[in-house]
């Protein structure tokens, strides 16, 4: 189903152009939303149906709606970019579609076909193209999500689901102004265990991380890093981002998949690094080794990556046992080079050898 298959209902009271322009000067992140949203329904008897782009507005939910009780919910995150030539582009959207399907499998939900996923995003972006900011580092953040909408109380997969996609103009994810973020090591809470939902992008994973994130903020840190559930030693990932480690021999290491989210930015960084002849390992890395390597100088850079923040340097790591600094405490050369290469491709300002940029409209 293409974007042309979506019925369109214009918002009768869109945000005034002058007000929209004021908002786009400094949109922040996740606080302002566009005029429309995409919606598709699913039921056991009809499958996917009733695809439309409509005015963004509140949802009316019965108190017994299944998601409110059993948390059958998944989501994605990707961005639309305004290109220098006036066009519009997405970055690897079919990878988001694939991960959305895999998350649905894990949560016993119906799989949204790739063409329907992509069609919903294209239709929404076309409707709200004027909301794409043009400032440096800005974009239109897209949040596709799906939840169990059946009204019932009983522990079983629901028979009705609602898929939606909303959009929000976005600036920089971190507003601290610091050259690098600080990390708190959670020694009590864990994020995911083998056989759990760590590889699925579901709300429950993030809800479970919030108490540790609150602890990190109380300790003066920007983010929390989780360790494995068995030994509480091996680095997992941050509350919402994957981690990379850069060594003095030029090689890069990142924790292996399994209990962590298969980040699309993560995969892109791996590919770009290998394209440049950098030795990259996907292997376990211990928290005590991280500190020892940082103190000895063997580890020269650490960075986190994800759709929202793209690539973010990590400067300091804190725990109940103390703190250590990575390199100079600011952005490293490898981190900056990979970020520059990635963002240039995303905005069609550099060659795209892997055909990652999806132009439309």
From TrEMBL:
CDD domains reported in the protein's UniProt record: BCAT_beta_family
Cofactor(s) needed for function: pyridoxal 5'-phosphate
Pathway assignment: Amino-acid biosynthesis; L-leucine biosynthesis; L-leucine from 3-methyl-2-oxobutanoate: step 4/4; Amino-acid biosynthesis; L-valine biosynthesis; L-valine from pyruvate: step 4/4; Amino-acid biosynthesis; L-isoleucine biosynthesis; L-isoleucine from 2-oxobutanoate: step 4/4
Region Disordered, residue ranges: 1-21
Reactions that this protein is recorded to catalyse: L-leucine + 2-oxoglutarate = 4-methyl-2-oxopentanoate + L-glutamate; L-isoleucine + 2-oxoglutarate = (S)-3-methyl-2-oxopentanoate + L-glutamate; L-valine + 2-oxoglutarate = 3-methyl-2-oxobutanoate + L-glutamate
Signal peptide: none
Keywords tagged on the record: Amino-acid biosynthesis, Aminotransferase, Branched-chain amino acid biosynthesis, Pyridoxal phosphate, Transferase
Modified residues (N6-(pyridoxal phosphate)lysine): 201
Gene Ontology molecular function, alphabetical: L-isoleucine-2-oxoglutarate transaminase activity; L-leucine-2-oxoglutarate transaminase activity; L-valine-2-oxoglutarate transaminase activity
SUPFAM superfamilies the UniProt entry points to: D-aminoacid aminotransferase-like PLP-dependent enzymes
InterPro entries: Aminotrans_IV, Aminotrans_IV_CS, Aminotransferase-like, B_amino_transII, BCAT-like_C, BCAT-like_N, BCAT_family
Enzyme Commission no: 2.6.1.42
Superkingdom of the source species: Bacteria
Gene Ontology annotations of biological process type: isoleucine biosynthetic process; L-leucine biosynthetic process; L-valine biosynthetic process
Protein family (similarity comment): Belongs to the class-IV pyridoxal-phosphate-dependent aminotransferase family.
Function: Acts on leucine, isoleucine and valine.
Protein name per Swiss-Prot or TrEMBL: Branched-chain-amino-acid aminotransferase
Species whose genome carries this gene: Sphingomonas turrisvirgatae
């Amino acid at each position: 189903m293409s974007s042309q298959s979506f019925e369109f209902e214009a918002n009768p009271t869109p945000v005034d152009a002058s007000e929209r322009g004021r908002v786009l000067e400094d949109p922040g992140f996740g606080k302002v939303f566009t005029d429309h949203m995409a919606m598709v329904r699913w039921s056991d008897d009809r499958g996917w149906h009733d695809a439309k782009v409509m005015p963004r507005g509140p949802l009316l939910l019965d108190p017994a709606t299944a998601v409110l009780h059993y948390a059958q919910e998944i989501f994605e995150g990707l961005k639309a970019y305004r290109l220098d030539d006036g066009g519009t582009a997405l970055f690897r959207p079919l990878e988001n579609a694939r991960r959305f399907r895999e998350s649905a499998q894990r949560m016993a939900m119906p799989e949204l076909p790739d063409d329907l996923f992509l069609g919903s995003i294209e239709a929404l972006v076309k409707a709200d193209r004027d909301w794409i900011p043009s400032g440096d580092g800005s974009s239109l953040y897209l949040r596709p999500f799906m939840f169990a909408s059946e009204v019932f109380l009983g522990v079983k997969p629901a028979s009705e689901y609602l898929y939606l996609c909303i959009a929000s103009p976005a600036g920089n994810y971190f507003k601290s102004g610091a050259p690098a973020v600080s990390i708190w090591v959670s020694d009590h809470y864990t994020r995911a265990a083998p056989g759990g939902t760590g590889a699925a992008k579901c709300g429950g994973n993030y809800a479970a991380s919030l108490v540790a994130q609150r602890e990190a903020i109380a300790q003066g840190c920007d983010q929390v890093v989780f360790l494995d559930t068995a030994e509480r030693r091996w680095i997992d990932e941050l509350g919402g981002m994957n981690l990379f480690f850069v060594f003095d021999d030029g090689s890069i290491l990142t924790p292996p998949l399994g209990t962590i989210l298969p980040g699309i930015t993560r995969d892109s960084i791996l590919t770009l690094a290998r394209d440049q002849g950098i030795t990259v390992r996907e292997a376990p890395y211990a928290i005590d080794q991280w500190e020892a390597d940082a103190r000895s100088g063997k580890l020269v850079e650490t960075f986190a990556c994800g759709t929202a923040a793209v690539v973010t340097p990590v400067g300091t790591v804190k725990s109940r046992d103390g703190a250590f600094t990575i390199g100079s405490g600011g952005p490293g050369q490898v981190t900056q080079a990979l970020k520059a290469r990635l963002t240039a491709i995303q905005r069609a300002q550099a060659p795209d050898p892997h055909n990652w940029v999806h132009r439309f409209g």
